[in-house]
Specification:
Length: about 280
């Protein structure tokens, strides 16, 4: 090709190369700034859409974790209350045994009965106090606990999302009910009532074993599910990172290379732009 001042092919080629280098620089700087290799669907549509779906799951798992934490707190409060009631029932039974002794006098039996009544009323106090955020598993009117267990739809035949959940039933440990069979007016004021109370408390102790086992199993199940949810969340977060996170060590090395290319490109363009000036020497 002859000399021409209208068309500078070398300058155009140098400019194209410099533009590509600048584009690469912009891309590397974006990755360094955001820490992401894929920050937009323009970078990689498949990876971006998969990552977005996983981010949605992460948000759902946070809700699951929060729900499990709430259920755990309610259940643990109920466990603490039930364990305390079990201790109180044991003390009540000891008082009943003492009051059932035919060899004690009336004043002594009255003293035992006073202690027994105080312990009996303590059960009501414990039940009423075993409340967390408006839920009380030991009181009949205290409600039950239901918590999200996972993001899985438990009813695949439904057209709407039906969350997989776990629940902890109300134990109703008020006096005179199915678990605590001691009546609200129960006492050991006589030898006969003390003997009858021993049988009542034996039944209550058997009921408490079942209740404590139920609450303990529920607490362990919630703990296990919360641990699994946490591990699952970490795994998904790692998966998102594998899809979209930038390798900053590689990007740093690439940045260094592109900076050198940019400098060389500017020099090449400068040299190419000077080429038409050589034509003037032909007219001297």
């Amino acid at each position: 090709m002859g000399f021409s001042v209208n068309t500078n092919t070398g300058a155009m080629a140098a400019l194209q190369s410099l533009s590509e280098t600048n584009k690469g620089m912009s891309q590397v700087q974006s990755r360094i700034n955001t820490g992401l290799n894929v920050s937009s669907t323009k970078d990689d549509s498949a990876s971006y859409t998969i990552a977005q779906g996983l981010r949605g799951d992460m948000g759902g798992l946070k809700a699951v974790s929060s729900s499990l934490s709430r259920a755990k707190s309610v259940t643990d409060v109920a466990v603490a209350g039930a364990e305390q009631i079990s201790d109180v029932v044991n003390q009540m039974k000891a008082k009943a045994y003492q009051a059932a002794d035919a060899g004690i006098d009336t004043a002594t039996r009255d003293a035992y009965n006073a202690d027994f009544v105080a312990l009996r009323d303590q059960i009501t106090t414990i039940v009423n106090s075993s409340d967390f955020n408006g839920t009380n598993l030991l009181k009949a009117s205290g409600g039950t606990v239901t918590a999200l267990q996972s993001l899985k739809d438990s009813n695949t035949g439904s057209t709407t999302w039906d969350p997989d959940s776990l629940s902890v039933a109300n134990q109703d440990m008020e006096l005179g009910k199915s678990v605590i069979t001691v009546a609200a007016s129960g006492n050991i004021s006589s030898q006969a009532s003390a003997q009858a109370m021993i049988d009542t408390l034996t039944t209550t102790q058997a009921n408490l074993k079942t209740t404590l086992s139920t609450l303990g199993a529920a607490s362990r199940k919630i703990d296990a599910q919360a641990t699994f949810t946490s591990k699952l969340s970490d795994t998904i977060e790692g998966g998102i990172g594998n899809l979209v996170d930038a390798d900053l060590a590689k990007e740093s090395a690439r940045l260094q290379a592109l900076q050198v290319k940019q400098q060389l490109g500017v020099q090449a363009l400068s040299i190419a732009n000077q080429a038409p000036q050589t034509i003037t020497s032909l007219f001297r």
